[in-house]
Amino acid sequence: MGVIVMDIRQLDYFVQAARLNSFSRAAESLYITQPTISKMIRNLEIELGADLFYREGKSIRLTDAGELLLVKAQNIVESFTSLSSELDSLRNLKQGHIRIGLPPMVGASFFPAVIGEFHRRYPEVTIRLHEDGAKKVEDDVESGLLDIGAIVLPVNRAKFHCFTFVEEKLQLLVPAGHRLDGAQKVQLKELAEEEFVLFREDFALHDRIISECVKAGFQPKVVYESSQWDLISRMVAAGMGIALLPETICRDMDRSRIAVIPLTEPVIPWQLGMIWRRDRYLSFAAREWIAFAMKVLGEL
Question: 40, 61, 90 — which closes off a domain?
Fold first, then answer.
């Protein structure tokens, strides 16, 4: 085999396709066309003399050669990205692109004012928001698909830097006229025979609530799951079940249709934090965002 010549774009395209298991999704994330990324990766395969992906209809998966290249390519792409970001920072360019992950409930409640004011201050910095459950956001920050993410704590402090910006408790929502309507407080074990409306499995509260119920001596009866807190509250109002939601969300409930009751024994904490990887270089724009968000959220 002769000398292999490849550029950083080929490796970047390959890494994105491998991470997303799709040429089309990788092309979308890179703001290029699918034929462009397909051609670039095919040229890379020709240069290497080996197929990097099994192509099965619209889906792809790595070959053994692809697995081997991915390990090396990730290091090369990250090193090149860090070099470029460091050079930009040295030139003090307040430009850039930030990828931020926000669970829907968190984004709607806490971040519109932060994002709006940041954009006014740094109009040339673009922010791409990704709405997913907290567990998916954490995974994507760890893998490098996101720069920063807001998640439900706790988090692995050995992997991530983190600052906490919300510390609340979960409260019980029941429909008006429910047997517990009017109660001053409720113990979790009193809900053993109730039907629950929960967030989906990719939301941290899904596992947290089920775990606490099991500790209290029962397996909750889950009748509906959703990614939207407002839909959950409407299901409760319609008498479909009960729900446990954070204090911030409960403040917006229609008290004529829903009763909000403090939950005790145990109190279930709801803490939010913003995370970023310890071992990755952050661009100037991302560092500015973190400092700005810490200040604004601290004031809120």
Answer: 90
183, 240: one domain: yes
Q: Pairing relation of β-strands 160-175 and 258-264?
A: antiparallel
CB 169 within 8 A of CB 267: yes
| Burial degree of 213 (CB within 10 A; 0-12, 13-18, 19+) | buried
* Full domain range(s) for residue 48: 8-90
Instruction: Identify the H or E element spanning 230.
Output: helix 229-237
Which residue is associated with the tokens 């969300």?
A: 249
Instruction: Write the CA distances from 294 to 111, 117, 159, 189, integer angstroms.
Output: 11, 13, 20, 37
Res 1 pLDDT > 70: no
Mean pLDDT of 27-43: 92
What is the 3-class SS of 157-198, one letter each residue? CCCEEEEEEEEEEEEEEEECCCCCCCCCCEEHHHHCCCEEEE
Three-state secondary-structure class, residue 260: strand
Q: Is the pTM of this model over 0.70?
A: no
